[in-house]
Specification:
There is one protein chain. The chain has about 725 residues and is of the alpha+beta class. The chain folds into four domains: about 5-185, YbaK protein; about 245-490, 2-Layer Sandwich (BirA Bifunctional Protein, domain 2); about 500-615, Anticodon-binding domain (Rossmann fold, 3-Layer(aba) Sandwich); about 625-720, 2-Layer Sandwich (Translation Initiation Factor IF3), CATH 3.30.110.30. Helix content is about 35%, strand content about 25%. It is built from 24 helices and 33 strands. The strands form seven sheets. An eleven-stranded mixed β-sheet has the order 13-17-18-24-21-20-19-32-33-31-30, sandwiched between helices. Strands 1, 2, 3, 4, 5, 6, 7 and 8 form an eight-stranded mixed β-sheet that branches. Strand 15 (about 305) and strand 16 (about 310-320) form a beta hairpin. Helix 12 (about 250-270) packs antiparallel against helix 16. The chain is globular and about 85 Å long. Bound molecules: ligand 87F. Ligand 87F binds near residues 294, 297, 320, 352 and 440.
C-alpha cells in the first residue's frame, strides 16, 4: 500500500538523508519507546509523536473533510478542543475506510507522510493541525513512522515544515498550542464550567509553589485521562518513574493501601488464613511446565537472564502471580486430610509486562496485591470461601473507599482459564462510562491439584488402597488498582476527594482572619485554639492536623488541602473565638457550617461518617442511573454511547459474547473516547450479577437473549471496560 522508497527519496531531497531505523511493529507509544530503546545509533534527543485523523460529524452528502493532527505524544489532543479551535462540531476518529481510502494507510501507521498519498481531488478539503510544542522544540529530532509502524525516521522540525509545504494542494494548515488550549477555560465544556462549585472561584488561582501551578489545567469532564494523572500527581499520590509502566506510590497513596491491608488482613485472618511469603523468582522450567495455565499470559512474563556480566545458566522468571511458586509446596505439605484446609495468603508485588497504555494504579507493570491460595477437602468448603472473600472485597470498596461494586460471576470468556469459576466485584467509572474489574475470587476446582499432584487419601474409606482425593482449591487477589478506581470516581476539578476512612489527614484546621491589625497575642490565641482542637480530635483517634505554617495565606492552604482531598476543613478566626465555635467546610460538597467548640469531637466523628455514607450513596446513585436494563438489541449500543452499562437477558454462550463485542465495535459508534490510543471499544460481559433484576422478570424458556434470540439464562451486565 505504501511506497517507502519514494517517500525516503522525497525526504532526502529536502535535506533528510538518514534511512529509517527498523524495529518490531508497534501499536502504542509505549511499545514504540520500548522498541526504540533496543536500537542503537539514534539521535541523542528526540520526541515521539502521534498523528491523529479525525472527521467532523457531517451529512453523508457532503465531501469528507478530514482533520490531521500532528502532535507530541504527550500533548493533550482533545477532540473537543480541536473542534472548538477549527469551529467544527463533533470531531470523531476517522474510520478505517477513510484511513485506507484517502490516506492509503492503516491504524497504527498514520503519520504526516500519509498526506503525500492523498488523492488530488481530496487534498483541498484536508485540514492539518500542528502542535506548536513540536515546532518550537528545535533542540532535538522528531520521530515518525514512515507509513509503517515497524520503522521510524527522525527529522528536524524544519524538515517537517518543508514537507508539509511540499504537499501540493494542501491549503488549510494551522498551528495550535495544546497546552494553552487545555488550560483556557473556553476549552472546557459548558457543563463542566457550570458544575464548578462557586467556592472554586474564591480560591486562589494559579498560585506558584516552586514553579508548579497549584490548580488543575484540565477538567474531569473535558479531558479525563489528563485530569486523572494531573490530579493524582498534584495530590502527591504518585510520581512517574523512568521505566514505562512503573510508578512511585507516594505516602498519601501508600497510606490508603495500608488501611486496606489492615482491614482485609484482619478479615482474612478471622477466616483462618495465615500469612506467608514465597520468593519472587520462579525457576524457568517450573513456569514452562505449567504451559496450560500460562498460555496467553506468557508474553507478559519478565525474566532475569543475567547477574552482573554473567549469563545465568537458566533464566529465572519474576512472579506474575504465584500458583506455580506455591503449589509444589502445597503438594509437599498436604499429606493427609488433617492438613486441610490449608489457607495461605501473601502480601507482595507482582510483575506483568503489559504493552497496553499504562495508567497509574489501574494498569502498571509492577503492582502491589495480596494473593490468597487455599486448599479444601470438598468443593463446598472451597465455594463458601470464594464467596466470603468476595464479600470482604465488596466491603473494602464500600466501607473504606465509598465505592459501590456489583458482585457476580464471570462469563466463560472472561473467567480465569486455569479455574472452574471466577467471581468478581465490578466497579463503574461514570466519567468514561466504563466498567472495571475490582477484585477476583476463583474456584479453581481440581485443575491445579491434578497438575501439581496435591492429594489426600479419602477419609471416608478404609483399607490399604484408599482412593486419592485431589483437593479443591481457591485463589483470590485484590490490588492497588483499588486506589485508582476510588480516585477516578471521587476526584473532582479541585483535586482528590478522599473518603474519610482512608484519608491520611481527616481534618485540617486552618487559622483564618488574621491580618496585620491583630496583635501577637490575638494571633497566639487563635493558633492555640487550632492546636487545642487538633489535640482534642487526636485523642479520639481522628487524624487531625493544624496547619500553622507561616508565610502561606489561608487561601493557599485551602487549595493545598483540597488538592489532597482532606474531607473536613475547620477554619478558626477571631469571630469563631468570640462565638466559641468553628467553621467547617466539607471537601466532597463544599458545604459550610458552624460547629460549637463544646461537643465538637462527637460532631466531627458523626460528620466523617456522614461524608462517607453520602459519598457512597452518590456514587451508587450515579452507577444505578448509568445501568440500563436493555431488552432489544437496537437499544444496546445507544445505551453504551450514553456512558451506561447494560443489563440484558443473555444466553451465556461464548460465541454470543464474541458477537456482542463485534457488533458494538464500530468506528461510527465511537462517540468521544478521550484516549486516542484506545481503539473503538466493543462491550464485553462484566459479570452475571448475583443480585438479578426483578423487573421485568426473566422467564426461563420464554425470555430470549437480546443479541441472538436463544433462550436467556440470566441477566448479564455488559459494558465497555478497562
Ligand atoms: C500474567 C502472566 C502470567 C493473570 C498473568 O486472579 C500469569 C498470569 O495467571 C495469570 N495474569 N493470571 C491469572 C491470575 C489468577 C489468580 N492468581 C492469584 C488471581 C488472584 C490471585
Amino acid at each position: 500500500m505504501s511506497d517507502i522508497g519514494a517517500l525516503v527519496s522525497k525526504l532526502s531531497t529536502m535535506g533528510f538523508s538518514d534511512p529509517p531505523v527498523e524495529h518490531a511493529a508497534v501499536d502504542s507509544v509505549d511499545q514504540w519507546a520500548e522498541a526504540l530503546s533496543t536500537v542503537s545509533g539514534l539521535p541523542s534527543k528526540y520526541t515521539l509523536t502521534k498523528t491523529l485523523i479525525f472527521k467532523p460529524k457531517q451529512p453523508k452528502s457532503e465531501a469528507i473533510a478530514p482533520v490531521v493532527v500532528i502532535a507530541k505524544d504527550v500533548s493533550a489532543t482533545n477532540s473537543k478542543t480541536i473542534g472548538t479551535e477549527l469551529k467544527l462540531k463533533d470531531l470523531r476518529f476517522a474510520s478505517d475506510d477513510i484511513l485506507s481510502g484517502i490516506f492509503q494507510t492503516a491504524k497504527g501507521s498514520v503519520s504526516p507522510f500519509a498526506l503525500s498519498q492523498v488523492p488530488k481531488e481530496n487534498i483541498g478539503s484536508v485540514r492539518v493541525v500542528i502542535d506548536k510544542a513540536l515546532l518550537n522544540d528545535t533542540t532535538g529530532k522528531i520521530a515518525f513512522h514512515p507509513l509503517d509502524s515497524s520503522r521510524t525516521v527522525f527529522i528536524s522540525n524544519e524538515t517537517l515544515k518543508s514537507f508539509i509545504k511540499s504537499v501540493e494542494g494542501l491549503t488549510h494548515v494551522i498551528e495550535m498550542d495544546f497546552a494553552a488550549a487545555a488550560a483556557a477555560p473556553a476549552a472546557a465544556p459548558a457543563a463542566a464550567k457550570a458544575s464548578r462549585p462557586a467556592a472554586a472561584a474564591a480560591a486562589p488561582k494559579a498560585e506558584e509553589v516552586s514553579g508548579t501551578k497549584l490548580g488543575l489545567d484540565v477538567t474531569k469532564e473535558g479531558d479525563f485521562s489528563t485530569w486523572y494523572r494531573q490530579m493524582l500527581m498534584k495530590a502527591e499520590m504518585y510520581d512517574n518513574y523512568p521505566i514505562s509502566g512503573c510508578f512511585i506510590l507516594r505516602p498519601l497513596a501508600y497510606f490508603i493501601w495500608q488501611e486496606i491491608q489492615k482491614f482485609l488482613d484482619a478479615g482474612i485472618m478471622s477466616m483462618g488464613v495465615k500469612n506467608s511469603y514465597f520468593p519472587m523468582f520462579i525457576p524457568g522450567d517450573v513456569l514452562e511446565r505449567e504451559k496450560d495455565h500460562i498460555e496467553g499470559f506468557a508474553p507478559e512474563v519478565a525474566w532475569v537472564t543475567r547477574a552482573g556480566s554473567t549469563e545465568l545458566a537458566e533464566p529465572i522468571a519474576i512472579r506474575p502471580t504465584s500458583e506455580t511458586v506455591m503449589y509444589p509446596y502445597f503438594a509437599k505439605w498436604i499429606r493427609s486430610h488433617r492438613d486441610l484446609p490449608l489457607k495461605l495468603n501473601q502480601w507482595c508485588s507482582v510483575v506483568r509486562w503489559e504493552f497496553k497504555n499504562p495508567t497509574p494504579f489501574l494498569r502498571t507493570r509492577e503492582f502491589l496485591w495480596q494473593e490468597g491460595h487455599c486448599a479444601h477437602l470438598t468443593k463446598d468448603g472451597a465455594m463458601t470461601e470464594v464467596r466470603e472473600i468476595l464479600t470482604l472485597y465488596r466491603r473494602v470498596y464500600e466501607e473504606l473507599l465509598a465505592v459501590p461494586v456489583i458482585e457476580g460471576v464471570k462469563s466463560e470468556n472472561e473467567k480465569f482459564a486455569g479455574g472452574d469459576a471466577t467471581t468478581t466485584v465490578e466497579g463503574f467509572i461514570p466519567a468514561t462510562g466504563r466498567g472495571i474489574q475490582g477484585g477476583t475470587s476463583h474456584y479453581l476446582g481440581q485443575n491445579f491439584s491434578k497438575m501439581f499432584k496435591i492429594s489426600v487419601e479419602d477419609p471416608e474409606s478404609t483399607g490399604a488402597d484408599r482412593p486419592k482425593l485431589f483437593v479443591h482449591q481457591t485463589s483470590w487477589g485484590l490490588s492497588t488498582r483499588t486506589i485508582g478506581v476510588m480516585a477516578m470516581i471521587h476526584g473532582d476539578n479541585k483535586g482528590m476527594v478522599m473518603p474519610p476512612r482512608v484519608a491520611e489527614t481527616q481534618v485540617v484546621i486552618v487559622p483564618c482572619g488574621l491580618s496585620s491589625k491583630q496583635t501577637d497575642e490575638e494571633r497566639c490565641e487563635i493558633e492555640n485554639a487550632c492546636l487545642n482542637v487538633e489535640a482534642r480530635l487526636k485523642m479520639l483517634g481522628v487524624r487531625a492536623e493544624a496547619d500553622l505554617r507561616e508565610n502561606y495565606t489561608p487561601g493557599f492552604k485551602f487549595s493545598h488541602w483540597e488538592m489532597r482531598g482532606v474531607p473536613i476543613r475547620l477554619e478558626i478566626g477571631p469571630k469563631d473565638l468570640v462565638n466559641q465555635s468553628v467553621t467547617f467546610v466539607r471537601r466532597d460538597t463544599s458545604a459550610k457550617g458552624q460547629m460549637a467548640f463544646e461537643g465538637m469531637e462527637a460532631a466531627i466523628q458523626l460528620l466523617l461518617i456522614k461524608i462517607h455514607d453520602e459519598m457512597l450513596a452518590r456514587a451508587r446513585k450515579e452507577m444505578e442511573d448509568h445501568t440500563k436494563i436493555v431488552l432489544k438489541w437496537a437499544d444496546f449500543v445507544p445505551a453504551l454511547n450514553k456512558k451506561c452499562m447494560v443489563l440484558i437477558p443473555w444466553c451465556e454462550r461464548s460465541e454470543c459474547e464474541d458477537q456482542i463485542k463485534a457488533r458494538s465495535t464500530r468506528d461510527e459508534l465511537q462517540d468521544q473516547l478521550e484516549d486516542e490510543k484506545e481503539p473503538s471499544m466493543g462491550a464485553k460481559s462484566l459479570c452475571l450479577p448475583y443480585k438479578q433484576p426483578e423487573n421485568p422478570p426473566l422467564v426461563h424458556g420464554q425470555t430470549k437473549c437480546v443479541q441472538c434470540g436463544e433462550d436467556a439464562k440470566r441477566y448479564a451486565l455488559f459494558g465497555r471496560s478497562y
